[in-house]
Design a protein that fits this description.
The chain is α+β, with helices and mostly antiparallel strands. It is built from 4 helices and 9 strands, in the order ααααβββββββββ. Helices cover 19% and strands 23% of the residues.
């Protein structure tokens, strides 16, 4: 992941990316990072903040366990791992459009897998050292709900595999444009 971050730095100017590194990869508004002064591609997503009690009442127990408690659904049990509808996948916590069916692929893992988000600023990536592994956690940039993890063994063109929980997503059918 670090390598990718630095590649982006080379492409889009180091300052914006450095500020991301200093906030641990979180797209937080920072003092001095004025709206007009952002590099293109570093668009801010307005955050949604809710209390734990609010999330409990808004989400199903399974959505809450995964999105707010970083749970993982059992492989091959989610509703989207083998789903092939055309459309977009929204965050089940806040309805932000995160992934398109055009980047979905069959990874054989039992979890819905994508090779790219709709836009890079819609997700956050954080180091996850739980369960004696070093993984990269993927979260919704707006509500910071846990979606899954990203691995570097995906298909072209990105070589990435966003391995997500069905329960963290909400599918909406769309016509291909
Ligand atoms: Zn969200």
């Amino acid at each position: 992941m670090i390598r990718r971050v630095w590649l982006k730095a080379a492409l889009s100017g180091a300052a914006a990316v450095l500020s991301l590194l200093w906030t641990g990869g979180r797209l937080l508004p920072r003092a001095g990072a004025g709206q007009g002064g952002q590099e293109k591609g570093a668009k801010m997503i307005e955050k949604i903040h809710r209390t734990d009690q609010e999330w409990r009442s808004l989400l199903t127990p399974e959505q809450y366990r995964i999105l707010r408690r970083k749970g993982t659904e059992r492989a091959f049990t989610g509703k989207y791992h083998d789903f092939k509808g055309q459309g977009v996948y929204l965050c089940a916590g806040c309805d932000l459009e995160l992934f398109s069916s055009r980047t979905k692929f069959d990874s054989g893992t039992g979890w819905p897998s994508f090779w790219e988000p709709i836009a890079p600023e819609r997700i956050l990536e954080r180091d996850d050292r739980s369960l004696f592994m070093v993984r990269t956690e993927v979260l919704c940039a707006r509500c910071e709900g846990h979606l899954g993890h990203v691995f570097e063994d995906g298909p072209p063109p990105t070589g990435l595999r966003y391995c997500l929980n069905s329960a963290a997503l909400k599918f909406e059918a769309r016509e291909e444009s």
